[in-house]
Amino acid sequence: MPFPRVRTRFHSVYGQGGLMEQEWIEISDSSTTTIMKPLSMDLQNKREKLKDLALHLVEDIRPEMKEDIYDPTYQDEVGPAPKLEYVWRNIILMALLHLEALYGITLVPGCKAYTWLWAFLCYVVSILGITAGAHRLWSHRTYKARLPLRLFLIIANSMAFQNDVYEWTRDHRVHHKFTETHADPHNSRRGFFFCHVGWLLVRKHPAVREKGGLLDMSDLKAEKLVMFQRRYYKPSVLLMCFILPTLVPWYCWGETFQHSLYVAAFLRYAAVLNMIWLVNSVAHLYGYRPYDKNIEARETVLISLATLGEGFHNYHHTFPYDYSASEYRWSLNFTTFFIDCMAAIGLAYDLKKVPKASILARIKRTGDGSYKSG
Ligand SMILES: [Zn+2]
Ligand SMILES: [Zn+2]
């Protein structure tokens, strides 16, 4: 008679639930024969990913914030993708903005020189509101800022009009944590158009809503300035993104209202949007991965020029807690120069920089071999 078999649950030492599916092993009830199924490739793979996650957490140099650390153990659920739900209001507004910006381009040659300078200044301030503000300060907590600087950054952030800091941060933390899955708001696996702008034109994937809702956002909830901006976001955008950029050239040096509105407001706003979106699209699709070849984020250095330092994206996803978002400091990175200036006058402090030895160890461990020192 064959031995009856007993099925026993295998309990993972790493925990249960979401992180690890339970596996079966089969043990014969004979005292002399024990048949154990070898660990499946799937389980070994998951173990590797858990080890990877543990390493990511250990490498982090910020004890207080872990919500933006990549979780390689998360995988999309198998099954058909939910139907796309278009948000027609956003589609129409975005189309109109881009038409206005195109018209603005035709007006550029007829602008006064001061208007060009003013539009450029508004561009730089808007970008800093995203890079030094929503991104490096509020999403990643890579440095600390005193009130005058936070005030400047929140005003600059309203000028950039890319959702309020609270919402931007939630989308961005979930982008880092679950990058290239359906829980990533601008999942680059869904194609160039989707990760560039399409994600803003459709309803969020249920996984984004679910995982985004679980993030710890208590640091932002406790920050009065951030919650104040959230409360008065619409009037602040109207004032900073459209009214102020238009009124200054018109009132101060007699520019026509039309040139002021279409160049300093619409064209400048559309340019800021597209440059920041390039980080989500191009910097997740094209370029080398010298720091971590297992993620899609890439080094696309030219984007750093347009975004004032956000194109070192493979580095940034590997070390999201580095205030420079790059291995280097001022090279193609005006945002780092700006933060350093703020630190020099005492408005920024506790700047987090990954030690060179950790970077080199990481390059050796997970880089794609394209790293060139010096
Ligand atoms: Zn980031
Ligand atoms: Zn990214």
From TrEMBL:
EC number per UniProt? 1.14.19.1
According to the entry, every stretch annotated as the Fatty acid desaturase domain falls at 116-321
Q: Which InterPro entries match?
A: Acyl-CoA_DS, FA_desaturase_dom, FADS-1_CS
* Alphabetic keyword roster: Endoplasmic reticulum, Fatty acid biosynthesis, Fatty acid metabolism, Iron, Lipid biosynthesis, Lipid metabolism, Membrane, Metal-binding, Oxidoreductase, Transmembrane, Transmembrane helix
Task: Tell me the Pfam families matching this sequence.
Answer: FA_desaturase (PF00487)
Q: Which residues cross the membrane?
A: 91-110, 116-138, 237-254, 266-288
Instruction: Name one process (GO BP) from the record.
Output: monounsaturated fatty acid biosynthetic process
UniProt free text on domains: The histidine box domains are involved in binding the catalytic metal ions.
- The name under which this protein is listed is stearoyl-CoA 9-desaturase
UniProt gene name: LOC105986588
